[in-house]
């Protein structure tokens, strides 16, 4: 069996600045069943918090499930492009395809 060498590559995961994050809340107050009222999706937390305040004033409900979603970008270190050998994406594709890499 051929010996395989895997190298650690310190990828960086950052928020994708080209896509807006999403905020929303759902009322989970209720004794037997949850209220279920929803704030709708917004691109900032302010409108969601304002909806929660208004919903609490109107109903007396005080418990909410808040959700935040965003998009992430995984980037290799800048010096990876300067490294010898094929790009890491090609090495991974080769490994998935036939179990070997050019470095075997």
Task: Please give a structural write-up.
The protein is an alpha+beta fold. The protein has 2 domains: 1-10 and 73-104, no CATH class; 20-69. The chain is built from 2 helices and 4 strands; from the N terminus they run E-E-H-E-E-H. The chain has helices at 45-59, 88-98; strands at 12-15, 22-27, 64-69, 72-75. Strands 1-4 form a two-stranded antiparallel sheet. Strands 2-3 form a two-stranded antiparallel ribbon. The model has no long low-confidence stretch (mean pLDDT 84).
Low-confidence stretches: none
Number of extended strands: 4
Integer count of domains: 2
Profile the largest sheet. 2 strands, antiparallel
Strands in their spatial order, largest beta sheet: 1-4
Structural class: alpha+beta
**Secondary-structure element string:** EEHEEH
Relative helix content? 25-40%
Strand content: 15-25%
Number of helices: 2
Mean pLDDT equals 84
First-residue to last-residue Cα separation: 11 Å
Shape, per Cα inertia axes: elongated
Rg from alpha-carbon coordinates: 24 Å
Topology, please?
Layout: E1 12-15, E2 22-27, H1 45-59, E3 64-69, E4 72-75, H2 88-98
Antiparallel strand pairs: 1-4, 2-3
